[in-house]
Structure to design on (241 residues):
C-alpha cells in the first residue's frame, strides 16, 4: 500500500483529474463536431451528384424502358457544357459500329476526353436491347449534328449489322423517346430529321438508303405522339376529378 497523500498532494491530484476530464470532454466534443461536419458535407455532395430534376426530362418510355442517366464528364471533346438555348428539332443517327451496346458508345464518347483528338457525343444512345442512356443534359449541346448541334437533341441508335437497320427493341425505344421529346418540346413532324438531312452524310444508313423505311419510322413516331398526348390528357382528367 502506498503512503497516504498530503492535503496539498490530494488537491493537486484532483485538479489534474478535473483538467484531464475537461480535456477529454473537449476532445470528444471536437470529434463529434468534425464528424458531423464530414457527414453533412458527404450528404450535400451526394445530393449534388444526383441529377437535378429539371435536367432529366424523360424517365420512362412507353415500352417500360427506364432511361439510364449517365452523363459524360465535362470536357471540351464530348461534353463542352455549352448551353442548348432552344430545341428546334431532333436528329436521329446510327452509331455505324455494328453490334456495339449503348454503354460501349457512351464510354467511347467519354474516352474522347483523354484522346483529345476527336469531338463527338450524343444526348441519347439507344442499345440493341432497347436500353437508353442519356449522356448529356438537355440543357447542354452535344457534338453530333454539325451546324444543328446548337438547336437540336441528338439520338444515336445501335444496330446489329452493316446495313444499319434498327432491330425491334431499338426501334420501339426510339419511337417512344422521340414521341415523348416531341410532346415535351412541342416539335412538329418536319422537325424530326436524320443526320443526312443536315449534312448529306449517310446516317442513319438504312433510313437514308430506304426512304420508305424513314417515312414509316416517322409515321410510327407520329402515331405514338397521339398516344402520348392522349395519356397526358387522361392523366390531367384523372387529377381534375
Ligand atoms: Zn450521324
Amino acid at each position: 500500500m502506498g503512503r497516504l497523500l498530503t492535503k496539498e498532494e490530494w488537491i493537486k491530484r484532483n485538479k489534474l483529474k478535473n483538467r484531464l476530464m475537461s480535456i477529454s470532454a473537449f476532445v470528444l466534443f471536437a470529434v463529434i463536431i468534425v464528424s458531423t461536419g464530414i457527414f453533412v458535407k458527404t450528404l450535400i455532395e451526394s445530393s449534388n451528384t444526383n441529377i437535378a430534376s429539371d435536367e432529366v426530362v424523360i424517365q420512362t418510355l412507353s415500352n417500360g424502358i427506364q432511361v439510364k442517366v449517365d452523363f459524360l464528364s465535362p470536357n471540351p471533346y464530348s461534353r463542352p457544357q455549352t448551353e442548348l438555348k432552344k430545341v428546334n428539332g431532333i436528329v436521329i443517327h446510327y452509331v455505324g459500329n455494328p453490334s456495339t451496346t449503348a454503354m460501349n458508345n457512351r464510354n467511347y464518347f467519354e474516352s474522347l476526353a483523354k484522346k483529345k483528338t476527336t469531338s463527338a457525343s450524343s444526348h441519347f444512345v439507344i442499345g440493341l436491347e432497347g436500353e437508353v442512356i442519356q449522356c448529356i443534359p438537355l440543357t447542354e449541346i452535344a457534338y453530333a449534328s454539325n451546324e444543328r448541334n446548337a438547336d437540336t437533341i441528338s439520338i444515336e441508335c445501335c444496330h446489329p449489322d452493316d446495313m444499319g437497320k434498327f432491330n425491334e427493341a431499338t426501334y420501339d425505344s426510339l419511337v417512344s423517346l422521340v414521341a415523348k421529346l416531341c410532346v415535351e418540346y412541342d416539335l412538329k413532324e418536319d422537325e424530326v430529321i436524320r443526320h443526312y438531312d443536315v449534312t448529306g452524310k449517310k446516317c442513319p444508313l438504312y433510313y437514308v438508303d430506304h426512304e420508305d423505311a424513314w417515312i414509316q419510322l416517322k409515321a410510327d413516331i407520329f402515331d405514338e405522339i397521339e398516344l402520348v398526348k392522349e395519356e397526358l390528357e387522361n392523366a390531367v382528367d384523372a387529377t381534375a376529378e
In short: The chain has a mean pLDDT of 91. The chain has two domains: 1-50, 53-240.
